[in-house]
Structures are given as C-alpha cells and as structure tokens.
Amino acid sequence: MSLFGATGSIGEQTVELLLRAGGAEAFGVVALTGGRNLARLADMARALRAEIAVCAEPSDLAELRARLAGSGIEAAAGPDAIAEAADRPADWVMSAIVGAAGLVPGFRALRHGATLALANKESLVTAGPLLMAEAARHGARILPVDSEHSAIFQALVGEDIAAVERIILTASGGALRDWPLEALAKATVAEALAHPNWAMGQRITIDSASMFNKALEVIETREFFGVAPDQIEVIVHPESLIHSMVGFRDGAIMAHLGAPDMRHSIGYALNWPERAELPVARLDLAQIATLSFRAPDLQRYPALRLAREVMARRGLAGAAFTAAKEVALDHFLAGEIGFMDMSAVVETVLEGLNRDFGTNSAIMTLEDVQGMDHLARMRAGEIARARAGER
Ligand code: NDP
Prior knowledge:
single chain, alpha/beta, Rossmann fold, Rna Polymerase Sigma Factor, Chain: A, 3 domains, seven-stranded parallel beta sheet, four-stranded mixed beta sheet, 17 helices, binds NADPH dihydro-nicotinamide-adenine-dinucleotide phosphate
C-alpha cells in the first residue's frame, strides 16, 4: 500500500489504524508522501518500513535524506517525485493530499489497478469523469473516504442505484452556523476554526464553516454516484451523528449513524469489503435522545448555490471552482479578505471564466484541468487582492 498526504489529518489517522492492525508486519508499505513536515514523514516511514518517502519541496530533499539515514528507505522530493511514487504498484492507495495537488497521484495510482481510498475530494470535483473512466479502464476501484460518501456507499451496499430517489448529505453547519448573518463578514480565522464536532485539518475546517466543503461534497456525490444534481439535497444536522442518507423510490431512507470520527470511514475503506473492529466511540442513543435538522440558508452559505451552477456547467467548471476557492481561502487565512469575501471571489472568477472561455467545455485531459486550475488561480488572486485593497 501507499499513502499520499501521510502527514496530514487523514494520513495520521490512517497510519494509526495501520499500526494498530499490525503495522509493517501486516502491510507492505511502498510509498509515503508528505508536504513540509519532514520529521513526521521520516518517523512514519521508519515505523512502517516504507520503500520510499517523498516530500513536496525539492529544497527539502537533503534534510529528508538525513532524517532517513541508515534506514535503507529511499528519499525523493517534488511534485514529479510524488507522481512517480504513485506509479509504483501498490494494492491499496490512500489519496489524502489536500487540494488540487492530490489529483495526479490518485489518477496515476488507478493505472495499476489499485484500490484508491479517496479522501482528496478535489479529485472528483475537478476531474470526476476522467477519474471514473480511468478507474473503469484499468479495473481499479475507488472507495470514498469522506464520511458522507462513505455513509452513502455503505447505504447502497446491495442496492440498485436506479432505485435511488435522492441522496441527503448532512452538514454540521460549521463553527459559525449560529452567528447572526450580518456578523459573518467580520468572522476571524480563529472563530471559523472552532468546529463544533470534527477535528480536521485547518483548511477543511474553514471550508466547513463556509460550506465550501459541502459544496465540494455535493459535486463529488454527483460525480461518484452518477445521480442527477436535483437528486442531491443538503440538510444541516448540528449533531453530526447521521453522516448522510439515501432515499429510495419506495420512500425508505437509509441513514448511516456513528460518532464523528474519520477513523470509521478510513477503516471501512481499509477493510472493505469486510468490517473490522475499529477504535471509534459507540453511540449511546438514549443519552443522545434527539437529533435535529434544519434547511440550509443559502444567504449564509452561498457556496451551496455556486455548487449547483458548477454542476449545471460541468466540464472544467469544477476545476475553476476548486482553484478559486483555494486561493480565496489562502487570502482569508492570511487575514487579507473577509469570511464572506471568499464566496464573492469564487463567484466572480466563475462568472468571468465562463464569459471569457466557457468553463462548460467537455474535459479532455488532465492538462485541460491543470490549465483551468492555473487560470482560475490567477484570476482569483487578482480579485482577492483587489478586495483586500478595498478593506
Ligand atoms: P491536512 O492539511 O491535514 O494534510 C494534508 C496533507 O497533504 C499533508 O500530508 C500535507 O503535508 C500534504 N500536502 C500539503 N500540500 C501539499 C502539496 N502541495 N504537495 C504534496 N503534499 C502536500 O489535510 P486533511 O488530512 O484534513 O485533508 C486531506 C484531504 O482529505 C483533503 O482533500 C480533504 O478535503 C479531505 N478530507 C479530510 C477530512 C478530515 O477529516 N480531515 C474529511 C474528509 C475529507 P505536510 O503536513 O507535511 O505539509
């Protein structure tokens, strides 16, 4: 197996499950990749006796080598080295690099027929049709790791997708869900990071507060399960105990419940098609007593409206949306633009690209996706800087 993004939140939890299930004795680990956290990457590579450890920055290679000295583990660095690590055959591959950088390694892992545990939701949003076709071509399997999609996948075991009437994605509403609407524009990074239920990486936690995360998941649902956009609903469920639901044509709804703990969906993908004992809390339903739901407010969460536009256009619109969102998030994290400016930046980028180039052209290649990513990043940077100047 190989883990891409091993040093992140999903990566750490995957490594924890692997060590718990026997570590290097039980699993043959091929590649582990990280970004800048070289100390952790080297520790993990030693603990799991990986063949190769790869970091994101070429300038970090000497330090990574030094940290692996005497272990016999190869070291490499840079985006090309990460992609090449994905060419090394591995039966099970975790795709958990954050952002658009996660697309290429996952795509290349499919070429040797791997089971791809897909946490990197940006892959399906930017290049869903390409990724699904590549998996089919090589007899590879994609297993969703996002808790919502894992829940849907589990609710569909033994079911015919044609019998599905609707898919209901649950959303916690994020850290700011109970704030007055007019206060959101002034929300700080620290406030948006105070997620009520889930402990996740920094970027996805902010995306949870803005519901850009849910917007990505709506598009991911459309691409992975092949349902029509109007079959996908979002409901705010503050307790985050129902991870998502599938409604069938006979009116039945299958809901997946569990503690808000990513080790469940990671472990499900790791053990699929079997189930193994996992170290997650068991729900005490009598103590929980009530589960609550509310409709999402589209003024509070413009990202959900934008997701509908992206699905209507399809093609390269997902790449533009994801890239613009990442840049807007960078500027918010740097304190340069406000919380609500993020969706305004993304909307302006989408409108501009659609007007000038038409983002709804059919996706042809990964290069087309990367080209649109680049363009949208440049536009989003310009627009975000202009907004920062107005503040
Ligand atoms: P983190 O930010 O915690 O970790 C990201 C990982 O990617 C780290 O290993 C990081 O390295 C590495 N990385 C960052 N930038 C690059 C780059 N340019 N090239 C190569 N590697 C890079 O993210 P999460 O674990 O939270 O999320 C990973 C993916 O899983 C995301 O797509 C997210 O949307 C998705 N996801 C996450 C969930 C969660 O609970 N965390 C839930 C569902 C989906 P380093 O830290 O060493 O710099």
